[in-house]
C-alpha cells in the first residue's frame, strides 16, 4: 500500500471551508490542514479544530497575499513576487507578520504548528524564506516545511506546475536541509481550479503516487462568494473527497490515507 496525505489549505478563511475540512478530517479523508490565523474566524474555528489534533497534522498557512483587514501585511501576488525577487521586502515587517501569525496559532491551539506552508506558496519566495528559516531556528521548530521540489506533473497543467516549482522550491529545500528541517518529499495538487472532472484528475495523481505523497486541496461545503476566485473548485473538491468514488479510487490504486511520514 502507498501512503498518501491529503492536506487542505485555507482553514479559517471562511466558515464553509472550515466546516468542510473538519468533516473530512473526521471521516479520515484528510490528515492535514493549514490554518490562516489572521482571519477574524480563526479563534472560533480553532476551537472546533482542536479536538482533531491527534489525528491530523495542523499547520500554519503563512499569508502575505490575502488582506483580512488594513493591518494585514499583504500584497497582490504579482507585486509580492516583484518585491521578493528584487529583495525590496522589509525583513522586519515580514518577521513581525510571521511572529504574529505563529503566536496566534499557538494561542488558539496550545501547540506549535506541525508544519509550515504558504498561501499561494509564498513561503518559498526570496526574503520570506530566509526570514522564515531564521525564525524557525529560533523557535526550535520540530515540524516539517512544505516543499514543491518533487511535484507530480500531469497534463494539461505542466506549465503551471513547473512555474510553481521554479519559484523557490530548490532554494527552500537547500535552506531546510542546511538547517535540519524536515520536508515532504513528493507533492501534488496543482491545477487551474477550473470546472473539470476532479475525480479523473485525482486518479492521475494517485496512479503516480509514491509513498508519503502530499496532495494539496481546497475543499468547501458551499459556494462562498463571487470574490473567491476558486469557489466552484472548492465545492467540486469537497464533493469528491466526501464521496464513495474517492474511497473506491483509493482502493483501486492501493492507497492508504494517513498523516504524512516525514523523516528527519
From TrEMBL:
Q: Identify the InterPro entries for this entry.
A: Glyco_hydro/deAcase_b/a-brl, YdjC-like
Q: Which key words are in the record?
A: Carbohydrate metabolism, Hydrolase, Magnesium, Metal-binding
Q: Does the keyword Hydrolase apply?
A: yes
Q: Which GO terms describe its biological process?
A: carbohydrate metabolic process
Q: Which cofactor does it need?
A: Mg(2+)
**Which GO molecular function annotations are given, in alphabetical order?**
deacetylase activity; hydrolase activity; metal ion binding
Q: What is this protein called?
A: ChbG/HpnK family deacetylase
Amino acid at each position: 500500500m502507498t501512503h498518501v496525505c491529503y492536506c487542505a489549505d485555507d482553514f479559517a478563511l471562511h466558515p464553509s471551508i472550515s466546516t468542510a475540512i473538519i468533516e473530512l478530517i473526521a471521516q479520515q479523508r484528510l490528515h492535514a490542514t493549514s490554518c490562516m490565523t489572521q482571519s477574524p474566524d480563526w479563534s472560533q474555528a480553532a476551537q472546533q479544530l482542536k479536538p482533531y489534533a491527534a489525528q491530523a497534522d495542523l499547520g500554519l498557512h503563512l499569508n502575505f497575499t490575502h488582506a483580512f483587514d488594513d493591518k494585514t501585511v499583504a500584497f497582490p501576488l504579482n507585486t509580492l513576487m516583484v518585491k521578493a525577487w528584487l529583495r525590496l521586502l522589509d525583513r522586519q515587517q515580514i518577521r513581525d507578520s510571521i511572529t504574529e501569525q505563529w503566536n496566534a496559532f499557538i494561542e488558539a491551539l496550545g501547540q506549535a504548528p506541525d508544519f509550515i506552508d504558504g498561501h499561494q506558496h509564498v513561503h518559498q519566495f526570496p526574503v520570506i524564506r530566509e526570514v522564515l528559516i531564521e525564525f524557525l531556528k529560533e523557535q526550535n521548530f520540530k515540524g516539517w516545511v512544505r516543499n514543491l521540489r518533487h511535484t507530480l506533473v500531469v497534463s494539461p497543467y505542466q506549465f503551471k506546475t513547473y512555474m510553481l516549482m521554479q519559484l523557490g522550491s530548490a532554494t527552500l529545500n537547500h535552506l531546510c536541509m542546511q538547517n535540519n528541517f524536515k520536508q515532504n518529499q513528493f507533492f501534488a495538487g496543482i491545477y487551474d481550479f477550473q470546472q473539470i472532472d476532479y475525480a479523473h484528475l485525482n486518479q492521475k495523481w494517485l496512479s503516480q503516487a509514491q509513498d508519503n505523497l502530499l496532495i494539496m486541496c481546497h475543499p468547501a461545503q458551499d459556494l462562498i462568494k463571487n470574490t473567491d476566485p476558486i469557489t466552484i473548485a472548492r465545492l467540486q473538491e469537497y464533493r469528491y473527497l466526501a464521496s464513495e468514488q474517492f474511497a473506491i479510487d483509493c482502493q483501486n490504486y492501493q492507497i492508504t490515507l494517513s498523516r504524512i511520514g516525514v523523516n528527519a
